[in-house]
Every structure is written in C-alpha cells, then in structure tokens.
Amino acid sequence: MELKIKRNVSLKVISVLLSLLISIIPFFQPKRVQANPLIVGAACIASILLGMKAAGYANNIILTPEQMTATNEELTANLQVAFPDPAEYNKQLNALQNLDNDLKAGREVDWSKYSGKALYAVLKGVVDVVWPVEITNVPQSEIFVGSIGKYYVTKKVNSSYAQYGIPNHGWSKYLYDVNSYTNNPSKKAESSNTAGYFYVRERGYESYSPNYTYYVMTLTNNPSGFYYFMMPSTVQWNKYLASVLGLPGDFSQVDNVLFVPSIKNKTANKVKLPTRLPQTVINNINNYIDGSTENLIVNPTPEELPTLPDGYNPNTDDLPDLPGYEDVTPDQEPSGDPEPTPTPPDPTPTTPEYNGDEWVNPIGNFFDGLLKFMKAAFVPTLSLNLDALNSMPDNLSEKFPFSLPGDLVRLFSVFQADPVPFAFDWEMDFTAVGAGKIPIKGDLSLFDEYAPLFRNLAFIAFIIGLAWKTFGMFFGGGDE
C-alpha cells in the first residue's frame, strides 16, 4: 500500500509544529553576558595585610570567616566597578586567581606584571572591612598611637620629658605594676613623677574627655626609658591599651591594631607587597583553607619581617625600601602576562542546564554533510546534464535555502535560558451563589521532570519536518 500525503497536509503539520515551538519560547529567558562571581583566595588577601604589617601600619592581624566573606563581597564590587566590561573583568579575575596559586605555592611574584587597578580593588575591599573608620580629629597636644575596633589610643608627654619621649609600643611586662603607681614596693606613689598620659577614647568622641586615662610614671627626671603606669586589672580599657603598646599576656588583647589614623590616606598612592609569602603565613593560609583554624591569621615571625629604619614613624614618614617587597601603585599598568601561569583548579561540578545545541547541532551538521555527499558521490553518476550542480560552491550550506538548518541552530540558540514553569493566577466569581470570588493559583512545576524530554522531541520533530518538506519542494514533484 502506497501512502500519499498532500502538500497542504504537510504544510499544516509543519505549521502545527512551528506553532508548538513558538508557544514554548516565552518560557525561555534570554541569557545575558555576566562576569563570573569573584572569589579571591586567602593568599592575595594575606599579601595585602602582610604589606600593612611590614610597613608598620598594623599588627595582630586576624580575619574571621565573616570578615573574609565581607572582604570578598567588597572587593568583588570594587573590581566590577574598575572593569565594567565582563571580558576584561574575567581576565583580571583569572590573573588574581593564578596569583593566589603562586603565592600559596611559595613562588616569587613579580607585582609589576599585574594591574594596579585590580590590586587596589582588592586592597580597598580589605581596608573597608578590617579598618572601616578613620580617625580624623586627634585632640590638640595629643599624639595618635593606635586604633582597635571602635576605640583608639593617644598619648601626651609632659614638657619636661619631651626630650626623652614615651615609646608608642614595645613595652615590656616588667615596666608596669597593676597595684600601684610604682614598680618598687619600698617607694610611695608620691615620690614618682608623671611623665605623661595615655588616653583611651571611643571613635566619634575625639573632642570629649577620654574614657580612661593612664598615668605614665617614672622615679627620676631622667627616665632613660624606664617608664611604668598604673594598670588595674579590673579596668575594661586595659585590653585596648595593651594591644596598642604590645603588652604581653596579662590582659586580653584585641586584634587588627592600626598604628596610623587613616590607612586609606597612607595607601592612597603606593603600597609595598611581598614578592614571596613567608612560610609561617603560608602555613596559616593552608590551616584556614582546610579548616584547621577558624580565622585567617597573618602573623609572621620577627625573622620573617623586614627591619624598619631606626626612628621610623609610620604616621609621618614615607615608606622606606624594604628587601623582598615591591612598590604597587593604583595606576600601575601590567608590564606583561604573569609567568608562569599555573593551570587553574578544576571547577566544582554543577548540574548542567538544558542546552538544545546537543540535539540541534548534530542534526544540522548531518544535513550539511548529506548535501555535500550528494554533490560529490551521486551527481557525477546521473545521466542527466547536471554540470551546473558540479560547479556548486563548497559553502552551499551557507546559501539559502540550504542554510536553513544552520540558521535555525543560530536562531534557537538565542533562546537558551533556564526554563520557567508555566504559572496561572485568576479568580472565579461565585458571588451569584454567595461564595464570593475564589482565587485559583498554580503552575506546571509538577511536570519539570518531563519538560526537557518534551522540548527535545519538539525540536527534533520540527527540524525533521522542515528538512523533509524542503527536500520535497526541491527534489519532489507536483503537489503530492
């Protein structure tokens, strides 16, 4: 039995398939080109913090998991502002991730090969989270010493002791006594001389009286560095003063001490970064990554830090040359691609989203190859005069109408997006029977499991029908 299908029936079938395909297009949302989310590793952040510590700007640097998360969010936003083009953003992201791998591996880094704008995006994210508030109004006649959290410490030296000065930090444990003004039990407090004061204040109250005053005492008018002060163990401000002065052990200390009133001003034009991370810092990074420690600790040993010049004051002096550290400026242009570029780690596997190309591309390629095969294999054997076909160009599949399969592939690739189940929401009016209006809501998420199969079958049916009908129009005959 021979089955004949009228041309109008074929067109109706194709129309139905096309209508069906168009009906599901609204459930696809066009994809937008977006930059990948930034995840800068702990090594890049630790390098910035180590540069602060080596320059004498900060001490006791510890970041909690919450601060690490906030830092990544801040620097991601900074990098996206600095590089609004997604392609350039992803390029800088890859460079930073490769840099992080180099630093964790203990390799030497040439900072001149990296964009200063990208590095300062990371630096600003770190500073805004770890040291978010600046001290802008130190009281007159007082000297800024350091800030911790929402408190800061200043000092005032009496005029008769100005020539000797009072050290900002590096105090030793035996230089103070918690029970009296003197560290010598045989002497009375009245015999001591007041060399100056340390003040603890809350930020935002610079012009007000300090929360607590510590009296710096000495037994002679020529202290030669032998100072001490009353520090009762019950005073809650002890931990802030102890953190700034570097006092050991007896009082709970606070982390992330800053020795300059404005870290943003000090790093605005230049910062020094280590060409190689010390092994202690690398070990701390690995401990943070594998969960051995909860916090990221940037605390190298004294031997792993450069020696600052005698008399160096981070508040007033420019950054000195430090061995093993390079200058980085915000306008630094990369001198070349960083070498070597390590292979990035394999991404975390994710469930692949639906991609129609997996079905459409092979079908389009099949018909493209079929047309070429027909030209090369069959045309020369026909008895008809088909010389014109022998001269067909190699790019015939790019010419209409033979380009239709490929055109369809390109057309429908525009609509690749995460599928959204159809939803409905309306009201049924039953006021005539006294029931009022009843809302009816729902969606077709119940069929999510079968939706990909339905879409695949719709694509296949449409492509086969279109190809079959196109072939019939050119190689068939009549309306049948």
Largest sheet: 5 strands, antiparallel
Which secondary-structure class do the elements indicate? alpha+beta
Poorly predicted runs are 1-5, 27-38, 174-179, 181-190, 379-384
Number of strands: 13
What fraction of residues sit in β-strands? 5-15%
Helix content: 25-40%
Rounded mean pLDDT is 75
Query: What count of helical segments does DSSP give?
Result: 12
The rounded distance between the terminal residues' Cα atoms is 16 Å
Morphology call:
elongated
Q: List the helices and strands in order.
A: HHEEHHHEEEEEHEHEHEEHHHEEH
**Multimerization state:** single chain
- Rg on CA atoms, Å: 37 Å
Which strand order do you get reading across the main beta sheet? 3-4-5-6-7
Give descriptors for this structure:
single chain, 480 residues, alpha+beta, two-stranded antiparallel sheet, 13 strands, elongated
